[in-house]
Amino acid sequence: MIKDVVITNLEKFHDNRGWLAEIFRNDQSEFRPAMGYVSQTLPGVVRGPHEHQEQSDFFVFLFGTFRLYLWDNREGSANYRQLETYEVGENNPAGVIIPPGVVHAYKCISENPGLVINLPNELYRGNNKADAVDEIRWEDDQSSPFVVE
After folding, report:
1. Phi, psi of 98 (to 5 degrees)
2. Prediction pTM value
3. What is the C-alpha separation between 46 and 38, in angstroms, rounded?
4. How many C-alpha atoms does 18 have within 13 Å on its Cβ side?
5. Rounded Cα gap, residues 23 and 107, in angstroms
6. What Rg do the C-alpha atoms of the chain give, in angstroms?
7. 3-state SS, residue 55
8. Mean pLDDT, range 103-113, rounded to an integer
9. Is 107:10 a contact under the CB 8 Å cutoff?
10. To the nearest whole number, what is the mean pLDDT of the chain?
Protein backbone atom coordinates (compact mmCIF):
# COMPACT_ATOMS: atom_id res chain seq x y z
CA MET A 1 0.00 0.00 0.00
CA ILE A 2 1.19 3.53 -0.77
CA LYS A 3 2.77 5.20 2.27
CA ASP A 4 0.58 7.91 3.88
CA VAL A 5 -2.57 6.92 1.95
CA VAL A 6 -5.27 6.11 4.49
CA ILE A 7 -8.25 3.98 3.44
CA THR A 8 -11.01 3.57 5.99
CA ASN A 9 -13.94 1.23 5.49
CA LEU A 10 -17.09 3.08 6.45
CA GLU A 11 -19.83 1.25 8.29
CA LYS A 12 -23.46 1.97 7.53
CA PHE A 13 -25.73 1.79 10.57
CA HIS A 14 -29.22 0.79 9.41
CA ASP A 15 -32.54 1.28 11.12
CA ASN A 16 -36.18 1.71 10.05
CA ARG A 17 -35.45 5.26 8.76
CA GLY A 18 -32.54 4.28 6.48
CA TRP A 19 -28.85 4.39 7.37
CA LEU A 20 -26.11 6.60 8.81
CA ALA A 21 -22.35 6.45 8.26
CA GLU A 22 -19.72 8.41 10.16
CA ILE A 23 -17.30 9.80 7.58
CA PHE A 24 -14.90 11.76 9.80
CA ARG A 25 -13.98 12.04 13.49
CA ASN A 26 -11.27 14.41 14.64
CA ASP A 27 -10.51 12.12 17.59
CA GLN A 28 -9.40 9.36 15.18
CA SER A 29 -7.23 11.29 12.71
CA GLU A 30 -4.57 13.99 12.57
CA PHE A 31 -6.06 15.11 9.25
CA ARG A 32 -7.88 18.46 9.36
CA PRO A 33 -10.27 19.41 6.54
CA ALA A 34 -10.32 23.06 5.42
CA MET A 35 -13.42 22.86 3.21
CA GLY A 36 -15.84 20.38 1.72
CA TYR A 37 -17.66 19.79 -1.53
CA VAL A 38 -19.68 17.10 -3.26
CA SER A 39 -19.46 16.15 -6.94
CA GLN A 40 -21.52 13.92 -9.19
CA THR A 41 -19.75 11.71 -11.72
CA LEU A 42 -21.67 10.16 -14.60
CA PRO A 43 -21.28 6.46 -15.51
CA GLY A 44 -18.08 5.78 -17.44
CA VAL A 45 -16.60 9.21 -16.66
CA VAL A 46 -13.08 9.56 -15.25
CA ARG A 47 -11.91 12.39 -12.99
CA GLY A 48 -8.13 12.76 -13.07
CA PRO A 49 -5.46 11.65 -12.99
CA HIS A 50 -3.99 14.61 -11.17
CA GLU A 51 -1.92 15.33 -8.07
CA HIS A 52 -1.33 18.11 -5.59
CA GLN A 53 1.94 19.58 -4.33
CA GLU A 54 0.61 20.77 -0.95
CA GLN A 55 -2.98 19.60 -0.60
CA SER A 56 -4.26 16.29 0.71
CA ASP A 57 -7.68 15.13 -0.47
CA PHE A 58 -10.10 13.19 1.70
CA PHE A 59 -12.57 11.49 -0.63
CA VAL A 60 -15.70 9.78 0.68
CA PHE A 61 -17.24 7.19 -1.63
CA LEU A 62 -20.78 6.19 -0.57
CA PHE A 63 -23.08 6.54 -3.59
CA GLY A 64 -22.40 4.74 -6.84
CA THR A 65 -19.40 2.52 -7.54
CA PHE A 66 -15.95 3.79 -8.45
CA ARG A 67 -12.60 2.37 -9.45
CA LEU A 68 -9.96 4.41 -7.60
CA TYR A 69 -6.50 4.67 -9.19
CA LEU A 70 -3.42 5.67 -7.15
CA TRP A 71 0.23 6.12 -8.14
CA ASP A 72 2.93 7.27 -5.69
CA ASN A 73 4.78 9.95 -7.66
CA ARG A 74 7.21 10.83 -4.87
CA GLU A 75 10.74 10.04 -6.05
CA GLY A 76 12.47 7.57 -3.80
CA SER A 77 9.25 5.95 -2.60
CA ALA A 78 9.27 2.17 -2.29
CA ASN A 79 6.56 1.74 -4.93
CA TYR A 80 7.33 4.76 -7.13
CA ARG A 81 4.76 5.03 -9.95
CA GLN A 82 3.26 1.60 -9.35
CA LEU A 83 -0.49 1.53 -9.91
CA GLU A 84 -2.85 0.52 -7.12
CA THR A 85 -6.59 0.21 -7.75
CA TYR A 86 -9.53 -0.15 -5.40
CA GLU A 87 -13.26 -0.58 -5.95
CA VAL A 88 -15.09 1.73 -3.56
CA GLY A 89 -18.58 3.11 -3.13
CA GLU A 90 -22.05 1.68 -2.62
CA ASN A 91 -20.98 -1.89 -1.77
CA ASN A 92 -17.63 -0.91 -0.23
CA PRO A 93 -18.09 2.52 1.38
CA ALA A 94 -14.73 4.13 2.04
CA GLY A 95 -12.99 7.29 3.11
CA VAL A 96 -9.61 7.79 1.44
CA ILE A 97 -6.97 10.34 2.44
CA ILE A 98 -4.54 11.00 -0.42
CA PRO A 99 -1.39 12.96 0.46
CA PRO A 100 0.51 15.39 -1.80
CA GLY A 101 2.58 13.68 -4.49
CA VAL A 102 0.17 10.77 -4.95
CA VAL A 103 -1.47 10.88 -8.38
CA HIS A 104 -5.11 9.92 -8.20
CA ALA A 105 -8.10 9.35 -10.45
CA TYR A 106 -11.44 7.68 -10.17
CA LYS A 107 -13.92 6.30 -12.67
CA CYS A 108 -17.63 5.82 -12.10
CA ILE A 109 -18.24 2.16 -12.96
CA SER A 110 -21.84 1.92 -11.77
CA GLU A 111 -24.86 2.13 -14.06
CA ASN A 112 -26.09 5.24 -12.25
CA PRO A 113 -24.19 8.45 -11.46
CA GLY A 114 -22.08 8.40 -8.32
CA LEU A 115 -21.51 11.05 -5.69
CA VAL A 116 -18.16 11.82 -4.06
CA ILE A 117 -17.60 14.05 -1.06
CA ASN A 118 -14.18 15.70 -0.77
CA LEU A 119 -12.90 17.30 2.42
CA PRO A 120 -9.45 18.61 1.41
CA ASN A 121 -7.07 20.12 3.96
CA GLU A 122 -6.48 23.25 1.85
CA LEU A 123 -8.89 25.86 0.50
CA TYR A 124 -9.41 25.70 -3.26
CA ARG A 125 -7.23 28.53 -4.65
CA GLY A 126 -6.47 29.71 -1.10
CA ASN A 127 -8.15 32.46 0.90
CA ASN A 128 -10.75 34.31 -1.16
CA LYS A 129 -9.69 32.17 -4.17
CA ALA A 130 -6.69 34.46 -4.68
CA ASP A 131 -3.97 31.81 -5.23
CA ALA A 132 -3.04 29.49 -8.08
CA VAL A 133 -4.69 26.07 -8.17
CA ASP A 134 -2.55 23.40 -6.50
CA GLU A 135 -2.95 20.77 -9.17
CA ILE A 136 -0.83 18.94 -11.73
CA ARG A 137 -3.36 17.78 -14.32
CA TRP A 138 -1.85 14.64 -15.81
CA GLU A 139 -5.02 14.00 -17.80
CA ASP A 140 -4.05 16.94 -20.04
CA ASP A 141 -0.61 15.43 -20.84
CA GLN A 142 -0.65 13.07 -23.85
CA SER A 143 2.65 11.51 -22.69
CA SER A 144 1.50 11.00 -19.10
CA PRO A 145 2.73 7.81 -17.43
CA PHE A 146 -0.57 7.73 -15.50
CA VAL A 147 -3.26 6.14 -17.65
CA VAL A 148 -6.77 5.14 -16.61
CA GLU A 149 -8.30 2.28 -18.58
Report:
1. -120, 115
2. 0.94
3. 16
4. 2
5. 21
6. 15
7. coil
8. 98
9. no
10. 96
